[in-house]
Amino acid sequence: MRIRKSRRFLPEKFILIVCLAAVALLVPLAKSADSTNMKTLTPEELVRVLAANGAKPLLLDVGSHMLFLQAHIPGSEYMGQGNTPEGLQHLRDRIRNVPKKSFIVLYCGCCPWSHCPNVNPAYEALQQMGFMNVKVLYIASNFGADWVDKGYPVAKGEQ
User: Fold this and answer.
1) Are the CB atoms for 76 and 60 separated by under 8 Å?
2) What is the model's pTM?
3) Into how many domains does the chain fold?
4) pLDDT reported for residue 148
């Protein structure tokens, strides 16, 4: 005698599928960099700003600490990763007493722009604090390709 398995759809499976779908919709996704929502500047523009006479922007690296140690823009400060609570808190603490009209440039460069998880949360945090002269350095591929390999100024280690 052959026993035939039933192919009925069990209510438990249906409930599990509905629950998984609901969780997927409710869990906030980490926002990658999106230049339509952020003011940006290119590496070439930042190089010109840094070379010009006058006040310089506050440069804040919100990427990986390991990458910062390997190479970063001279004069920039490491804040911690912009997609972590610790990195965002360090950023908030650092700029707490900075005038709201200050020119601030955020950058990461860990990966291609469309995949960067760090700049968007950092940018939004500064916007929420009332900073309106914030720009994000648009790094299309990564810091190595879009800054270091172009011969722009680099510092290494903690500074």
Assistant:
1) yes
2) 0.78
3) 1
4) 97
